[in-house]
From TrEMBL, chains A, B, C, D:
HAMAP family: Glutaminase. It catalyses: L-glutamine + H2O = L-glutamate + NH4(+). This is Glutaminase. GO terms for molecular function: glutaminase activity. Belongs to the glutaminase family. Keywords: Acetylation, Hydrolase. The gene is glsA. Homotetramer. Residues 414-423 have a biased composition (Polar residues). The keyword Hydrolase applies.
Length: 423, 423, 423, 423
C-alpha cells in the first residue's frame, strides 16, 4: 500500500485552492511571485516529511524567522535577559506596528517587527559584529532546518531600499536603551535574516524541531533547550498570527507564524511540524490559502492544543501477587507513557500495598516512555515502598527508567526480564 | 505507602503562604473573608481528587463561573450564534472593563464582565424567564461539579447593592441589540450565578470536566460536548487571567480562570483539573497565593500546554512474518496510544508490506487508546491493505477499535487473541 | 435702504443648500423631519436678531442644551465642584462615547453624553427632585432664550424607548460615585432637557447670551456670571463639534455646539450669536449644511477667535499743554475702548509727563468703553500722577469711568466738559 | 510717573517664584541651567517691550520654534499642502509621542516632535539643501524676533548624541512618504532649529508678531500672512501645552507654546505677546513657574480668548439732520473700531433713513479703525444709500477708509472735514 498521508495532503491542497488575497507588492521581488503557488509539508517526530504541491519552490522566510531567532536569543541570553527587552503579550496589532510598553519602551512581543529587530540584536551579545551576528543567525536557522540556508541577495537589497519603517523601529528601541548597537547595522542584519531562502519541507522540519523540544528530527541535534521551545511556542500561540490571537487559537489551536512571502509554520508540541506556502495574503497579512490549509489539518486530524487526549487505559496493566519458587512476589505491570497523570495512578495503585517483606517486581517492559515528572514520581514510589520493607526489582528491558536512584541511598535492582519467568 | 501527592500538595501550600495582596472589600461579605485561608485540590482523569489546606471552606465562585456558563451557552446556542454576540480576543483589560468591538458592539470575550453578562443572557434562549435561566445555570454548574450547588443569598443581596457598573454593562450591550431581555433581570441572574458556593474540590472537578472533553470524571455525565470544551479552554488560555495573557501562558501554560473571592481553576487538557483558594488578590485581581501555587504545580509537574510529550517509542512494537500451521502470516504489533503521530508511523510501517495474499494480524492488545483520527488512519490502512490482497485480522482483546468498518464494504475479522497463539 | 444683513443671510442659505448627509432616524420623530429645511439667525450685541430661511420651524434642542446646562451647573455648584465631576478635555470621540478618565471615572467633558448626563444631575443639588431639576433646567434655558421653552412630549417619550445607552452611561458614572441620584430618573430628566423645542432665533439669542458674558441681549437678564460663560465657551471651542476639534477651530474659529435634530449654535465672544438649522447630518453627527453656513459666516465676516483686531489708532488722541485763564494745563485726550492694550499705551504716554504742580485734564469723552483691567490701569495712572504733584481732572461726560477711586484716598475731580472750554 | 507695568511684572515674578519641578537633564547643557532663573517679557501692539527678572539670559528655543517654523512652512507651501502632511488635532500626548493618523500616517499636529520634524522638512521645498533650509529657518525666526538669532552649537552637538527618538520619527514619516529628504539630514536641521538662542524679549516680540497678524511690531516687516497666523494660533490653542488642552484653554485662554529649556510664549490676538523663562519643568514638560506666570497674567489682565469685550457704546455717535447754507444734510457720526458688530449697527441706523435727494455726511473722524468686513459693510451701505438717491460725502481726515469704491461705479466724495463746518 501507499502511505495515505500523501494522498490526503494532495486532497487538502485541491480543496484549499481559492484565489482570495493579494501578493505582497512593496518590493519587486515579492510582487513577482506566482500567486498560484501552493505547497504543504508535514514533519513527524521521527523526521519523516510528507509534502505536496509546489514543495520545491523556495521563497524568503521573512517573519517566519522571528520565532527561531527568538529561540536563538533565549538560548544565548537566557529568558530573563530577553524578557527585560522584549515582552510576551499579544498586541492586537499588525506586524509592523509600533507596540512598545508605555513605561519601559519594551516591544510588546518578538513577533512584531519592533520586537523581532530587538531579538535579532540580542543574538551573539552586544559586542558581536554585524557580520558575526548575521552568520550566527544563518547558522542557527540552518540547524533548525537541518540544511545550510542562504540569503536571497536580491530580496535583501530590495528590502533595504524601503527600510525606513524598520529603521524607525530600530532607532526607537535604541532611544529606550533596549538595543545597544548601531541602528542601521541592526536593521541590515534583520533584513538579511528575513531574506533567508526556504521551502515548505524546511519549514516543516524547523517547526517540528520546536515541537520536539528543540531536537532536530532529521539531524538529532539539540538546537535549543526544551524550555526555550516552550517559551517560543507559547508566544507563537498568542502573537504569531497578528490581530486575531483568539480567533486562531480557538479555530486552529496550533502555535503558528506567517511570513509576507506566503509561508506559514505550525508546530504542535510532540506531534507535528507544518509548513505551507502560497503568496496571496489576506487582510491581516497571512497567506490566505495557507490559513485554510492549517484549519483543514487542525480540524481533520484533531491537531488542536486543547484536544484532550482520549482517556488512557489504566497505566497499571496488572497487579497482584505471584508465587514463584516458594517466594511470594508483589507484581505490578505498567504500560504506555508515564507522565504526571499516569504516574499519579501508578502511585495510587502502589499505595494499596501493605508494608511487609515481600519483594515487588515493577515491570516497565510495556511502558513506552517516562518523562521527568513521571520519573520522579516512580522513584518516590520506589523509595516509599522500600522504606515500607519491600525489595523493589525493576523490570526494564528497554531502559526507559535509566539510573534509578530513589534518594536516601535507595536503588532498586534492575533486570531485563521478569524474576519469575512467565510464571 | 501513602500516595505522595498529598504530601507534595501540603509542601506546595507551605511554600506559597506569602501574605502579599489584599482581600476584595467592595462588599462586606468578601471583606470579611479570612485572608490567611489557603487550599488546593487536584482532580485527575479517573476522578480521584487530592486536596490540602482549607479544602472544606466554601466561597462564592464569582468570575470562575464565566467559563462554565460560556460552555452552557455554547452548548445551548451553538458556536456561531454565541460568536455573533461575544468575541474570543484578549482585551488586555481588567475584569470590569468595557471592551466592546468598535463596529459591532460585541464584548471582546466572555471572561470580562460585559461578555459574561451577555453569555449569561444567552443560556436558555431569549424567551427564557429570569428564574428558569438562573436554575439552568445553577443546574449546569452543578453538573460540572458533580454535586448540587446553591447560592449564597447574602453575597447575592450585597452585590446587587453595588451593581451599577454591571447594570451599565447590561444596558450597553442591550443598546447594541446584543442581548434582548430586561437589563436589570439579566444582571440579577448574573449576580446570582457569581454567588454560587464552591470549595476547591468542586473547582478541581469542574476544571477536570473541561479538561476531560466535557465528561465529569466523578459522575460520568457528558456535561457539554467536546468541541465546546476546546473552545472554552482556548478562551481561558488567552483571556482567563486578565491583563497578562502572554505572561500566564509562557510561565504557567495552563488554561485558567480566577474569581474575586480568591478562587482559581486550571485545566490541562487530558491531564488534570486544579482548584485553589486564597482570598488575597494581586493588583490584577487574581488570588496572589493561588497564582503562586499554579506556577509551582506547572513547573514541578511539567504541566504546561507546550510541554512536548517525550518522544514515544515506536508505535509499531514488532512486525515481520510468522509461520503457523503452514500459513505465512504478516504480523504487526502496535503499542501505546494511537493519535495522529502514532497513526502516521503505523501507516508508514504498513506501507512497507508488499501486496500479496498473505493474511495480516494487526495486534492491538498493547494499544492503550485510539482517538478519532487514529481510528480513521488505522481503518484507511486496513482498507488499503485489503485492496492489496491481504486478509486483515484485528487482535483487539480490549476493544480499543470498536466497529472497524473501513468503508467500501471492508471489515476485518476481530479476535481477542492471536491467530497463531504464541508461535 | 434695507439692512443688507438680511440679503446676505439669504444669499448664504442659497449657496449652502447642498443635500449631503442623512436625517437622524433612531426615533420616528427625528426621522420624520423635512430634510430640506434650512434656517439661520444672527443675534448681535444689542439684541437685534436677523433670520433667514425656515426660521419659524421648531425642533428639539438635543445636544445644544449641553453647554447651557453646563452653565447652569457651574453657576449652581461653582467651577471647582463641577470640575471634580466632569473634565474639560476634548475626547476625540463621537457624542455617545464612553469617555471616562481612567483613574477617577470623570467624564472627559460635558459635551459628550456621559458628561452631559452628569452635568444635568448637578443642577439644583443632590437633594433636588427629578421634577424640580427638570423645571430648573427648563427655566434656565428659557432665560438664555428670552422666552418660555417647552418640552416636545412625543420626542421625549420616543427617546426614552431607546435610552439603553444613556442608562448605561448614567449607571456608569453612578458606579464611580460621580452622580448620586437614581440613574433612571437622571436619564429621564436629561432626555426631557434634550426635548425642549427651539427655533434658530432662540438659538441665536442663547448663543449671544453666552457671547455677551451671560447677559441676555433681549431681556437684559444676567443669566449666569461672566466667568461661567468664559468656561463654557472655552469648552465649546475644543469639545463642541465632536471628533475634529482642531479642524473646527482652525477653519471656523467659533465656539459651537450641534444637536442631532439639526441645530447648531455658534458664539463669538462680544460679537455675535449664531443659530442654524438643517436636519441632514454629516458623518460626525453635525448638521451638514449648518456646518457650511458657519464656515461661510466665519470666512465672510472675519468671525474667528484668532482674527487679530486691526491695530487701533493711538488710544491717546492728543496730549500737550493748554494755557487757560493764566493756568497751564496738561491735557490728554483718549479715544476708543480701553482694555489692557490701550491702557498700557495711555500709561506709557502719561509716564512722559514730568512731576510738577500743573493740573492734568484727562479727557474720556471719545472713549467708547473701559473694561475692568483698563479701569484699574487708568486709576493707577491717576494715582501715580497725583503723587507726582498733579491735580487730575477727569472729563467723562458719559460716565465711562464711574466711581474713580484710585486708592490711597485719591479721587480725581470729574467733569462733564473740558475745564478750559474749547480753548 | 513710572509706567506701572514694570512694577506689576516684578510683583508677578515675586509671587510665582515657587521651586516645584525639575530641570531637563537629558543633555548636559540643559542640566547645567540655573534652576532659579525667572524672567518675563510683554510686547504690546506698537512694539513696546516690558521685561522683568533674568531678561538678559539666553537659552535654546527648543519646541517654541515649532509654531514659527509651522508658520514658515504654511507661508512657503500653502495651507492645503501642509495639511496634507501634518494634521491640526490635539493628540493628548506628550511632546515626543508618536501620534500618527492611522490611515494616512500624518502626524497629528505640528506641535509634537514628529509633526515638527515634518514641518521643518517642508520649509523651502523638497529640493532645498539641508544647509539652505537651516538658514531659511534661522532667518525666518530672526524676522519674527526682529534680530539675528544664532545657534548654540554645544546644545546642537549634545542633542545630536541622543537623537535616536527623533531619528525614529523622521524615518517613520519618511516610510509614509510624508517627507521626502534624507532622515538624518532632516533631524540635523530640526535639532539646529531647536538650538537657536533667545531671551524672553525675543519670545515676546515673536509672540506679538503672531498676535499682530504677522507684522513684526519692532521692524514693521510682514513676516507671514495674516491667514497663516490665524492657523498657527488656532493650533497653539489646542496643541501647544501638551496633554491638557482643555485645562489650559479654560484656565489661561492664551494660545501658547513651551520649550524644554524653560521658555513659554503666549500670544493673544491683537493684544499682547508674552515670553517667560524658568528652567524647572512640571510633569507635562512645561516650565512650572512659567505656567504660573501665564495664569497670573491671564487672570489679572483679563487676557483670555473668551473674555467678551465690554459692550461698546453705539458705533453711531450721532445722527440727524443739519441745515447748512440752505441745504438739509443728513448727518451720521461714527466712532470706535468698525468690525462686523459695529458695521451691523451702522447699517441698521442708516436703514432708518428715508430715500430722498438729501446729501449724507458720513463722519469717520472718530473712527479708530476699520477692518476688511467693516469696510465691506460701510461700502455696501454707501452703495444702497446712493441708489436711494442720496449723495454720500465721507468725512475721513485720517484715511481710515481708503479707496472707497462701493461698486456699480459708486464712489462717495471724501473730505477731511465736515461739509458744514461745525454747524
Amino acid at each position: 500500500m501507499k502511505v495515505p498521508v500523501d494522498d490526503y495532503l494532495q486532497q487538502v491542497l485541491g480543496e484549499c485552492a481559492g484565489d482570495e488575497g493579494e501578493v505582497a507588492d512593496y518590493i519587486p521581488e515579492l510582487a513577482a511571485a506566482d500567486p498560484d503557488r501552493l505547497a504543504v509539508a508535514l514533519c513527524v517526530a521521527d523526521g519523516t516529511v510528507y509534502a505536496a504541491g509546489d514543495a520545491d519552490v523556495r521563497f524568503s522566510i521573512q517573519s517566519i524567522s522571528k520565532p527561531f531567532v527568538y529561540a536563538l536569543a533565549l538560548a544565548d541570553r537566557g529568558q530573563e535577559a530577553v524578557l527585560d527587552r522584549v515582552g510576551v503579550e499579544p498586541s492586537g496589532d499588525a506586524f509592523n506596528e509600533i507596540s512598545l510598553e508605555e513605561d519601559t519602551g519594551r516591544p510588546r512581543n518578538p513577533m512584531i517587527n519592533v520586537g523581532a529587530i530587538t531579538t535579532h540584536a540580542l543574538v551573539g551579545g552586544d559586542e558581536c559584529s554585524e557580520q558575526d551576528r548575521c552568520e550566527q543567525v544563518r547558522a542557527g536557522l540552518s540547524a533548525f532546518a537541518g540544511r545550510e540556508l542562504s540569503v536571497d541577495e536580491a530580496v535583501f537589497a530590495s528590502e533595504m531600499e524601503t527600510a525606513d519603517r524598520n529603521l524607525a523601529l530600530a532607532h526607537l528601541v535604541r532611544s529606550h536603551d533596549i538595543i545597544a548597537g548601531n541602528a542601521h547595522e541592526t536593521v541590515r542584519g534583520y533584513v538579511r535574516q528575513c531574506a533567508l531562502l526556504v521551502d515548505v519541507r524546511d519549514l516543516a522540519v524547523m517547526a517540528m524541531t520546536l515541537a520536539a523540544a528543540g531536537r532536530n528530527p532529521l539531524t538529532g541535534e539539540q538546537v535549543v533547550p526544551e524550555a526555550v521551545c516552550r517559551q517560543v511556542l507559547s508566544v507563537m500561540a498568542t502573537c504569531g498570527m497578528y490581530d486575531a490571537a483568539g480567533d486562531w487559537l480557538t479555530n486552529v489551536g496550533i502555535p503558528a507564524k506567517s511570513g509576507v512571502a506566503g509561508g506559514i509554520i505550525g508546530a504542535l508540541p510532540g506531534q507535528v511540524g507544518i509548513g505551507t506556502f502560497s503568496p496571496r495574503l489576506d487582510r491581516f497579512g497571512n497567506s490566505a490559502r495557507g490559513v485554510n490549509v492549517c484549519e483543514r489539518l487542525s480540524n481533520d486530524m484533531g491537531l488542536h492544543l486543547m484536544s484532550a487526549p482520549p482517556l488512557a487505559v489504566a497505566a497499571v496493566r496488572e497487579s497482584g501477587t505471584v508465587e514463584y519458587e516458594g517466594q511470594t512476589w508483589l507484581h505490578a505491570e505498567l504500560q504506555g507513557p508515564i507522565r504526571f497523570a499516569a504516574g499519579e495512578s501508578v502511585l495510587r495503585a502502589l499505595a494499596q500495598l501493605e508494608p511487609g517483606p515481600e519483594p515487588l517486581a515493577l515491570d516497565l517492559s510495556r511502558v513506552t516512555s517516562v518523562d521527568d515528572v513521571g520519573r520522579r514520581m516512580l522513584l518516590e514510589g520506589i523509595r516509599r515502598l522500600t522504606l515500607d520493607g519491600h525489595d523493589v526489582v525493576l523490570v526494564d528491558p528497554r531502559d526507559v527508567l535509566p539510573d534509578p536512584d530513589a534518594g536516601d541511598g535507595i536503588r532498586p535492582q534492575v533486570r531485563t526480564s521478569s524474576p519469575y519467568a512467565d510464571a
